[in-house]
Structures are given as structure tokens and as C-alpha cells.
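User: Fold this one for me? It's Neuroendocrine convertase 2.
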Amino acid sequence: MLFDQSTKEKSSVFQTNLIHTAIQQPGFLRVKRGYKPLKVENLVKHIKPHNDPTDPYFPLQWYLKNTGQNGGKAKLDLNVEAAWAQGFTGKNITTAIMDDGVDYMHPDLKFNYNAKASYDFSSNDPFPYPRYTDDWFNSHGTRCAGEVAAARDNGICGVGVAYDSKIAGIRMLDQPYMTDLIEANSMGHEPNLIDIYSASWGPTDDGKTVDGPRNATMRAIVKGVNEGRNGLGNIYVWASGDGGADDDCNCDGYAASMWTISINSAINDGQNAHYDESCSSTLASTFSNGAKDPNTGVATTDLYGKCTTTHSGTSAAAPEAAGVFALALEANNELTWRDMQHLTVLTSKRNSLFDAKRRFHWTMNGVGLEFNHLFGFGVLDAGAIVALAKIWKSVPPRYHCDAGSVEGAYRIPSRKSIILKITTDACKDLSTEVKYLEHVQAVATINATRRGDLELFLTSPMGTRSMILSKRVNDDDSKDGFTKWPFMTTHTWGEYPQGTWTLEARFSSELPQVGFIKEWSLMLHGTKEPPYTELSVLDPHSKLAIVKKAHENQLKL
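Assistant: Here's what I get for Neuroendocrine convertase 2.
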């Protein structure tokens, strides 16, 4: 077909008018992580006997069934056999592995692969197969996928936590730099086909980075929890980070988001791994590798039909949690994204978890929930979470209360703390009133001569003290500081928020430092109505019974 010059000009104008906005996507780094007392029997009258899977690597999967192998502590595991014995194996639930690709032709994965829910955002095609490298660097996603949905009793590798569930591959990590658009498209891909998104990556774990989701990615996550799963909300599971004691996962805006479930790890004798970060936003923990033999990691699928026993890090912990949540969703597919967080808090166990360096101890909050700064509310218990999910009544609507702010240049002295206070009625008599807490955010603007020496603590009216920022020895920033950064804590879960909240800031440094708190706002997130009134519990010593009693006592005041 021939066109004259005027036709070409009209076509050009017409095409130009179709473009509303053009934005250059800057590149930024995102890195893979970890590459190199509710009694079930009181909720389940008859648990069927369960036979062990026959898969050859199952005896090595100590995090599924810990018998003390490889120097581990017997019964320190995810208690998945109690969930399987109740008949839940993840059927009809899809978990998306957002990573460097998934080997969907692996014989232990191919029958549980959901092609319709998969996509490759690194090369823009429907086939998220990992790019070949000599060092198998792109094996990360395939290993994570096997933890969730490796098939059972097929004589190949081990077995997934939710071995009858589906996995989708979302390839989005394998390019030199990440962009906001790639992340946002990945987080919002097929939200009604995908139930759970599992992410074992984040900003660089170097102990000096403060970074999180950009605008489009944040909007995608918020849209996912509000509209995904046909309005029930997608579940976003995040690895808390592998920066060790020198980092703080509250400086990672993905792991510290209230829209995600942040998962830390423990090793097979109950102590934290050397690479585990700690922070007040961690909700629970799963497992990574063995204590006496570091090569005894998570046994799972690997590239090219192979198997591995060396997968580790919080990268390995997050997919285990995704598998447990898949079991819970099969037990009750009407669970909202918030229901899943409540179930996590109420059924996770202290078990034998402990801080090897004795820095962080187990503490009770104001309504009797036990938490630890490293492990959140404990290790996930698959048997307990599915048992409670079966009888669960969805929690009341969630509200966001702007509880007050402090503005001005408040100097943080070099040798002692500064304490700022906000007294709040938690939006009483307003449409946004909060009486029962879920997440709490201290949104702060702070600068310092050395950001890494700064420590922050938030104390609730019921006396729960959360370290919302710890010392980071590698962070020598003196310019950027924190700008409206939302430090989040889950430690006050279930508490009554009315009263005085205190923010304490101090330097942990032998050298003199100085800083200024320019702004601090308190954001309370939770419900106006008590969340557990419709549930009956047979075990009076369970977490749920303890919190219900505390809430009932609060209603009498």
C-alpha cells in the first residue's frame, strides 16, 4: 500500500497522541537471598495415620520431619505431617515463584506447573525457563519451587510442603538491573489465578542499604491485597534478608511492609543462622540449614532434573512458609490476606528457637503473645494452622488511624537517649478508630553524622518495647538519613493502642555522634471490633484463648 507525505504526517500525529506519559525507568539492584502452644489434637478429633513419603530425599528433609538427623533437635520442624494427616496437601492453590525462572520441565515439578499463571518479564514471553550459566547461578527459583510443590512418592528428589499444589514461574530477576515496571508487573501478574507470591530477594544485604518498593511496585502490592484472589487478597511472602547481625530488615521496605509476611529462618538445632537479620517487622520463621554440617541445607529440586541438599538462607525459608500457607488456603479458601497473618501469629510456636548470641529473648506482649526480635512469633506449625483455618471466622474490617505526630528538630545527643511521646485516643469515635492492633508504624525523618550507629525503640501504652532500628556497623551514611521511613513492628499485635507511645533514639557508638529527629508520625493499623469473638477454642492454654481473654477483659473496662 502506498501513502503520500500528508498521510504519513497524519499517521505520525495520530500515533503520538496515543502516548499519554513516557517515563524513563532507572535501574536498581535486587539480589537473591541465601544462594551460596495451640494443640492440634484439641481442634481435630480424629487425625488419620500418616505414612512417610517414599521420595529418596525425604529422610534428608529434616525441616519437614526432624528426627534428630544431622545433629538436629527432634520435632523441631514445620509439623507438616499433622496437616497432611488432616487431608490437606495444597490442592487447587497456586504459588508464584518470583525469581530467576523455574525449570518447569523438571520431572518433580512438571505435573504441578501452572503455565497459565506463569510469565517471563525478563525476556517478555510466557516461558520463564532459567537462562543457562556454567555455575548454575540461575538455579535459585527452581530450588524455591521444589520446596513448595515437588511431587510426592515419584522416586525423584524430595517432597514439597504442599505437594499437590501448583507453582507458577515469574522470571524477573535475571537482568543487570531491576526496574519499577518489571517489579510491579511481576507483583500484579494474574492476581486471580495466583494465590501466593513468594519472593526470596530484595535490596542488597550489605548492612548499609535503605531501600524498598518504588511507586508502581507499591501500588501493585496494595492492589494485590485489596483486589487479588477476587477480593480476598493475595498473600505476599518475603524472605527477611541475609545480612546477618550487621543488618536490620526494617531497612528493607519489602520485608518490613505490612502488606507482606516477612519470614526469618532457624537452623536444625533451633538457633538462628549466622546470616539471619533481625527486626520488629518479622512475623514468623521457618528453616534453612543444619548446624553441625553447613552443607546440610534444604533438600529440593535443582536445574536440569537434578536434586540438591545445599539450598539455604532466608531464600529457603520463604518458600517453606508459602507451602504452609497453601495448606491453610486449601483448608479454608475464604481466608483473606489479613486472616493469614492472624493465623500465623496465633499458631506459630516458640518450640526450641533461641538466639545463639543471647541478644534477643522471648518476651510477652500486653495481651500475652510471645515474640522474639529474631523469630517473630515463632516457627510455623502447619498442623495447627490448618486446624484453626478450618474453623476460622474472618476478622473484622481493618482501619488506619493517624495517631499523631511530632515535628521539629529534636537533637539526639551523643551519650544519652532522647525520648519523644505521642498520647493518642487511637481515633476514638471516628470512622478510623482502632482498638485492637495489627501493625504499627513509626514514620520518621531522621539524619545523623553516622546513620549506622543509630538505634530506635518504640514502646506501646501496654509496655511492649520494640527495637525498630538496630545498629548497622557498615552503614556510614551522613547525608541521606531516613526520610519519612515507615519503621514497622508486629510485636504489639492484639494490644489496645490508647495511651502514650514513646519513641527512644540513641547512638550506639564509642565515637561522639549527633543527629536530629525532624518528624515522627504514629500510624496504627487494626480493628475496631475484637477479632476473635466468634471462635470457640477447646484448649484454654492456647495463644488464641489467652488473647481472647485479654480482649474480653479490655471490653469490660
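One thing worth pointing out: The domain at 398-527 is CATH 2.60.120.260 (Jelly Rolls).
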